[in-house]
Amino acid sequence: MYNKEYYGLLVKNGRTRIDVKRMMVTCYLDEDIYNVINKPRKTVYYLPERVKRHDYMVNIFRDAIEKQRKAWNEELMPVIKK
Predict the structure, then answer these.
(1) HSE on the CB side for 11, CA within 13 Å?
(2) What is the dihedral of CA 56, 62, 65, 70, to 10 degrees?
């Protein structure tokens, strides 16, 4: 396990906050991503707007793909192998 604070990820009150300056030093961030998360804000840390995992559409698609992969490996592959 790595130290999240080193990379600029801080968890407070169940929410993840991002220290953008530290993340730029320790990780490679694309300039476009940096510009989005470095917009003017009231705090030092970037706080994502969405809270829950399924608030992001990409996670809904990932879950659907994982469900299909699991069904393929557990139900269809054994039938094909026989």
Answers:
(1) 4
(2) -130
Please check whether residues 34 and 64 belong to one and the same domain: no
At 51-80, the pLDDT tens digits run: 787 787 888 888 999 999 999 999 888 888
* Residue indicated by tokens 């991503």: 33
Q: Report the predicted TM-score, pTM, of the whole model to 2 decimal places.
A: 0.51
User: What average pLDDT does the structure give for the chain?
Assistant: 81
CA distances to 25, 31, 41, 45, 62 from 21, in Å: 7, 13, 14, 9, 29
28 and 3 belong to one structural domain: yes
2-9 — which CB contacts under 8 Å span 24+ positions?
A: none
